[in-house]
């Protein structure tokens, strides 16, 4: 099967150093394997999107020589596809309506003596699962995926090695359509990866724990599961992941090769001088050699 990869930024602001690492890695992985590289703008969370940020991102990528091989798509234009997938899951009894707010979930967990750590997502306690009674008299507006049992998902990450997660214990039933009517990332990404024929997903390590949920959804929708590679994160001065939420500095594309070299260093690639095009060519060759060396070690 021909390689098809993608970079899928959210237009909540311009790209920063951390986003460029993921973009460069996904582009190199595709080009080193003779594949197609796509760009998808993940703008389903419209309240967080900044007008014009999508075009800024595309301009930043172009300045770094990273251009989509096919027309860019925007998730905000694909609601019908997501609704079709949700309808399929409803018909199969694999989802259920939920009336819980975040405060309801926190209160239910607190009553059970469960403490949630900082930055840790609360595990849904199953309040609205069929047969549990739910919140009587409250309208159910969100839709949750009923995580099957057993829920352990094991996958082989091309960067991190074998990974596993007990989704029911570590995440719980998760939202596919929010109470405000917006589509959740988990459903949109699974539907779009399948619709675009994505065979390989290369993205940052902060998204690795999303993979088990996406694999469960792929199985429920009878969709193929891509190969996954999760790349190292760029950390800020406070030791936390560099992100738009903690005011990461926008990527400077006035000197694109300098920015690319910073990203390449984190990917264990050599420093390059000259033009952006020449650097990308050299890095593709280095990436291909690394892939071949890894394949050889596995076979050996």
TrEMBL record:
<dbReference type="GO" id="GO:0005829">
    <property type="term" value="C:cytosol"/>
</dbReference>
<dbReference type="InterPro" id="IPR020058">
    <property type="entry name" value="Glu/Gln-tRNA-synth_Ib_cat-dom"/>
</dbReference>
<dbReference type="InterPro" id="IPR022380">
    <property type="entry name" value="Glu-Q_tRNA(Asp)_Synthase"/>
</dbReference>
<dbReference type="GO" id="GO:0006424">
    <property type="term" value="P:glutamyl-tRNA aminoacylation"/>
</dbReference>
<dbReference type="GO" id="GO:0005524">
    <property type="term" value="F:ATP binding"/>
</dbReference>
<comment type="function">
    <text>Catalyzes the tRNA-independent activation of glutamate in presence of ATP and the subsequent transfer of glutamate onto a tRNA(Asp). Glutamate is transferred on the 2-amino-5-(4,5-dihydroxy-2-cyclopenten-1-yl) moiety of the queuosine in the wobble position of the QUC anticodon.</text>
</comment>
<dbReference type="InterPro" id="IPR000924">
    <property type="entry name" value="Glu/Gln-tRNA-synth"/>
</dbReference>
<dbReference type="InterPro" id="IPR049940">
    <property type="entry name" value="GluQ/Sye"/>
</dbReference>
<feature type="binding site">
    <location>
        <position position="42"/>
    </location>
    <ligand>
        <name>L-glutamate</name>
    </ligand>
</feature>
<comment type="similarity">
    <text>Belongs to the class-I aminoacyl-tRNA synthetase family. GluQ subfamily.</text>
</comment>
<feature type="binding site">
    <location>
        <position position="124"/>
    </location>
    <ligand>
        <name>Zn(2+)</name>
    </ligand>
</feature>
<keyword id="KW-0030">Aminoacyl-tRNA synthetase</keyword>
<feature type="domain" description="Glutamyl/glutaminyl-tRNA synthetase class Ib catalytic">
    <location>
        <begin position="4"/>
        <end position="250"/>
    </location>
</feature>
<feature type="binding site">
    <location>
        <position position="100"/>
    </location>
    <ligand>
        <name>Zn(2+)</name>
    </ligand>
</feature>
<feature type="short sequence motif" description="'KMSKS' region">
    <location>
        <begin position="241"/>
        <end position="245"/>
    </location>
</feature>
<dbReference type="InterPro" id="IPR014729">
    <property type="entry name" value="Rossmann-like_a/b/a_fold"/>
</dbReference>
<feature type="binding site">
    <location>
        <begin position="6"/>
        <end position="10"/>
    </location>
    <ligand>
        <name>L-glutamate</name>
    </ligand>
</feature>
<keyword id="KW-0436">Ligase</keyword>
<feature type="binding site">
    <location>
        <position position="203"/>
    </location>
    <ligand>
        <name>L-glutamate</name>
    </ligand>
</feature>
<feature type="binding site">
    <location>
        <position position="185"/>
    </location>
    <ligand>
        <name>L-glutamate</name>
    </ligand>
</feature>
<keyword id="KW-0547">Nucleotide-binding</keyword>
<protein>
    <recommendedName>
        <fullName>Glutamyl-Q tRNA(Asp) synthetase</fullName>
        <ecNumber>6.1.1.-</ecNumber>
    </recommendedName>
</protein>
<keyword id="KW-0067">ATP-binding</keyword>
<feature type="binding site">
    <location>
        <position position="98"/>
    </location>
    <ligand>
        <name>Zn(2+)</name>
    </ligand>
</feature>
<dbReference type="GO" id="GO:0006400">
    <property type="term" value="P:tRNA modification"/>
</dbReference>
<dbReference type="GO" id="GO:0004818">
    <property type="term" value="F:glutamate-tRNA ligase activity"/>
</dbReference>
<keyword id="KW-0648">Protein biosynthesis</keyword>
<keyword id="KW-0862">Zinc</keyword>
<feature type="short sequence motif" description="'HIGH' region">
    <location>
        <begin position="9"/>
        <end position="19"/>
    </location>
</feature>
<dbReference type="Pfam" id="PF00749">
    <property type="entry name" value="tRNA-synt_1c"/>
</dbReference>
<feature type="binding site">
    <location>
        <position position="244"/>
    </location>
    <ligand>
        <name>ATP</name>
    </ligand>
</feature>
<keyword id="KW-0479">Metal-binding</keyword>
<dbReference type="GO" id="GO:0008270">
    <property type="term" value="F:zinc ion binding"/>
</dbReference>
<feature type="binding site">
    <location>
        <position position="128"/>
    </location>
    <ligand>
        <name>Zn(2+)</name>
    </ligand>
</feature>
